[in-house]
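Page 47, continued from p. 46.
Same chain as before, 476 aa.
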Amino acid sequence: MTSKVSSDNELNHLLERIIETTTTIMQARASSLLLIDQESDRLFFKVATGDKKDHLKGFEIKVGQGIAGYVVETGEALLIPDVHNDPRWYKKISESIEFRTKSIACVPMKINNKTIGVIEIIDKINGEPFKQDDIKKLTEFSSLAAIAIGNARENRGLKEELALKYRIIGESRALKKVICDASKVARSSVSTLILGESGTGKELLARLIHKESSRKDKPMIILNCAALPEALLEDELFGHEKGAYTGALSKKVGKFELADQGTIFLDEIGEMHPGMQAKLLRVLQEGIFYRVGGNDPVSVDIRVLAATNRNIEEDVKKGKFREDLYYRLNVVQIQIPALRERREDIRPIVEYYFDNFKKERGLPNLTISDKAMEKIFQYDWPGNVRELRNALERAVVMGNGREIEESDLTISGAKPKYPGLQIGLTMEEALNNFKKEFITINLEHTGGVRSKAAVIMGIQRTYLSRLISKYDLRGI
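Result:
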């Protein structure tokens, strides 16, 4: 049923909480949330409470059939003190599951004034019939559920839009092989290590693998391992229990738990601290983990994709990355070539992003001059596709609105090269020249990400920031 809302664990859990709360507050024996499938024009049970809730999953109701079907058809709430005296009562379901029903209150769920389903409550625990005030309360709960479902559908529409946005562009033989390998990997659940320079599209490839896998309708959770210190990374991955530490005012669900039944993508895995590597290995081996401050094991079923721009095999040899974790992650390895190694892809990449930027800016007649294109083709693009995309976007924004000129592309014709030793410089001047060139090369290699450049250079990020200010390198 293509029109059913996403079955993501997070949405299901939220709807279950809403219905359980509804049942408690309304003091009802049972409650149900039914949604419309637009293709079949029927209602199906999404969430239910009560002794017979598990028996309801196979039942469907036509729009217009029974109390729930009537509410969907009319868009108006119904209060039925005794269903046996109402000709709209559809008793087949109650009889089939042997659940006696007397009183029902049923209200529509609406998004933008369009009915998408209903919430109904059955019989008060004390035996009294439902009253008009109950309809008002029930309507509030239906509004909450409709908001949750609307957000889920909006997110799904956003995902479809993102699928177009996050395309892997290119027709080179090297790129086709990468995509072919990714499609093969997607058919299995093996851990996969994606290697490539910064800006080559490792996350895009991970998204492609997830999208073509059997887990495509489940969550894909992305976490950059280089963005957080070890303690915070553990909290992000595994979550924490209430009171685990000062400031932990409630339980937090971690990324692994959110990715259950789906995929987790661990970007920049090579930057993970040794202590965290050991904890990650244990999760991959045992399939369980413990929230920070918790004693109860949490079991998950996830597919792990990891990526790094480091020479991870060299890091393993040097003891910087655990060999056992490397082999766990590296069941299959996919290497994305740098843009300079597949130069035939430059033109389709330029055309794709340039068309998008023109639409965004409302400049349908904008063109690129021959000299600007020549400059694009001559450049080595050390920052790969990301650098090319950013250069194009800046040129569109800062240009004259008619034609992208050579001067609009703030790139040099070749990579900077250290000039070597020079006669006539003092020791301090020579050292300063080297530091400036060394910082420049590393910043370009990391796409301007200072924290990553600092790790590669073996210095503190704060010290790197001071050097950037000292040598006036802030434009990189």
